[in-house]
Amino acid sequence: MSVEESYLRCTACDQEAEHVVVYAGRFVSQIQCTGCGAVTRLDVSEDYLPDLRQRISSKPRRLMRRLRRDPGQLATSLPVRTLSKPGRMAQEFRTVWRSRRDS
Ligand SMILES: [Zn+2]
Predict the structure, then answer these.
(1) Residue 48, exposed/middle/buried by CB under 10 A (0-12, 13-18, 19+)?
(2) How far does the centroid of ligand 1 lie from the alpha carbon of residue 25, in Å?
């Protein structure tokens, strides 16, 4: 999950204002107007879940390829990666799930 700010026209208050745009993976899942606070949630679960599945399934093969090429380098970088990635994914997943339940 990542958050970006961009200047958009709000659909609720019809003003040009900073909007906080929340991404789940590469999909926009939530847009909040900083002017009036209106939140627009987009149900990205239809697009996001197959994308996530693809990202997860392609991982072991990539790791194996790197392991064969440079085992020492991977051993030092792996603990950090394995610890930070699931947390980030869980956060993405919660965002997507919220957008789904509310709609
Ligand atoms: Zn607004």
Answers:
(1) buried
(2) 25
